[in-house]
Amino acid sequence: MTKFISVGKVLNFHGIQGEAKIGFSRNQEEFFCGLKEVFVKERDEYVSLKIKSVRLHKNFAIVKFDGINSIDELLEYKGSLLFVEENTIREALEEDEFLIDELVGLDVVDETGQKVGFVIGVSNNGANDLLSVKTKSKRISLVPFVKAIVTDVSLKDKKVTINNIEGLLE
Q: pTM of this prediction?
């Protein structure tokens, strides 16, 4: 069964020709502009929308879909999440990039291999990604996802190794 991952949301219409104002994740302009097709979920199935053109406007994408030529035709999609097949995203990932779903739940260990917590989420502060790590003491610490601190990610071993510098987790 094909897995779909959300890549944006139809926020509103743009102009009267059926163009959509799309919100998407920060720093994903190149990926989003390269898409030829997205899916919307209608009831329990994913329906394809072919992308005719994409242009960036401020922090949004203005997208023209094939077959949608007026505001009325676009309005049914307002507020809809846009999805792509998981394989489309995997093909665009660099060697040291991961899907958030892959990281959540992984154990976090220090350089000695001792478990110090586990990943409960991933966020971005504008400069870099942050791992939300729940420690043994039940505190949540934000760990910058940079090579100097996160030294290894092993999906096979289900663990993230960090350079646990003083004050990072507590």
A: 0.73
